[in-house]
Amino acid sequence: MTLDSQQPRSSSATLFGTNRRKLIPIALALVGATAVAGGTLYFTGNDKTPTADRVSTNAVPPMTAMTTTAPIVAEKTPEMPVISASSGAQPVAMTAPISAPAPAAIQPATSSAPTTTNLATTLAMTQADPVGARLALTRLLDRRELNAADEFAAMTSLRELNAKLFFSPAMSVGDPLVRVYTVQSGDTLAKIAKKNDVQTDWRIIQRMNGMKSEKSLRIGQKIKLPVGAFHAEVSKSNYQMKIYAGEGQSRVLVAIFPVGLGELNSTPTGAFMVRPKSKLINPEWKNPRTGEHFASDDPKNPIGERWIGLIGVEAHNQGFKGYGIHGTVDPASIGKQASMGCVRMSDADVEMVYELLTEPNSTIVIAP
């Protein structure tokens, strides 16, 4: 059931313009291509309606406790490890330094990955061609032809590859999902993201480079940046959210999260995008059923620390209001129909999704 009181105040904002027209066909195409699989890859609702379209300053999320205006201090240039292809069954080599940045836009991987292959062949690629193996494993899982045991093996291998290729400071030669940036005087992560047209929240740069604080930035330091937009696909039947980088045949599965859904099957389906100005950190919430108000820093606030508002882009779901992706103070509700219709996640998982999904770049497809 749609609750008007769940509508973020930014709902009257002008929608995406040319960006919306460009992304809607992608979103609609994803509806028919949504893949579902069991298990949890890499990471592991009382629904909250924000009462303001801004980030609260009352609390600082664990990954962002930093001073963004700290000056950059010159020192010896750190070296970035590189994951290079090895021969035979040798372990992945970690060497340094990076000599040249990767391409600045998502391109089809230049690896030896075949368009289709069997699981044994793909798993054998992981050491010699990790970038190609990641793409091939994604295609295998998207075809949904693996039995349960093979599916688990594929997701386990993909989790390990993503931990090295994406969620670490290491850089793999020929990886189209990342590029290298050399830190300059006056840089902050937010400035770096803006001038490099990074299509994610700047906090993901901190996460993937293993930074405890932005203060660790140094002039000449080489850091890894994400390339392109990220998209989500939610399977209601599996209580699962998949996050993909890119679209089409070159898209790569980077993470799978367990989710909770709306009671009485109330979570709407179809293609969605991030509602403009609806991404909030530590927002307030008023329960539309009871009228109870929860302050932004209230540990009992039912939806946790993140809110990502959704807006439908199909004829049947454009009228839905107040739905979103958020955290929860009830972890036991993950994997169940317990929210007022929203997609709920653990606080740690929704922090990651908050950093990856952005407006107007990302599409979110919710399938039955």
Chart the SSEs and their pairings.
Layout: H1 18-33, E1 73-74, E2 82-84, E3 93-95, H2 119-124, H3 130-143, H4 148-165, E4 171-172, E5 178-182, H5 189-195, H6 203-208, E6 218-219, E7 222-226, E8 230-235, E9 240-245, E10 252-258, E11 261-262, E12 270-274, E13 280-281, E14 285-286, E15 293-294, E16 306-312, E17 324-326, E18 337-339, E19 343-344, H7 347-356, E20 363-367
Parallel strand pairs: 1-6, 2-4, 8-20, 11-18, 17-19
Antiparallel strand pairs: 2-3, 5-7, 8-9, 9-10, 12-16, 12-20, 13-16, 14-15, 16-17
Helix pairs in contact: 3-4
Question: If you had to describe this structure to a student in words, what would you say it looks like?
Answer:
The structure is a single chain. With 368 residues, this protein is α/β, with parallel strands linked by helices. It has a domain at 4-63 and 229-367: L,D-transpeptidase catalytic domain-like (Beta Barrel), CATH 2.40.440.10. The protein is 21% helix and 20% strand. The chain has 7 helices and 20 strands. The strands form 6 sheets. Strands 8, 9, 10, 12, 13, 16, 17, 19 and 20 form a 9-stranded mixed sheet that branches. Helix 3 runs antiparallel to helix 4 (148-165). The longest helix has 18 residues, at 148-165. The radius of gyration is 20 Å and the shape is globular. The two termini are 16 Å apart.
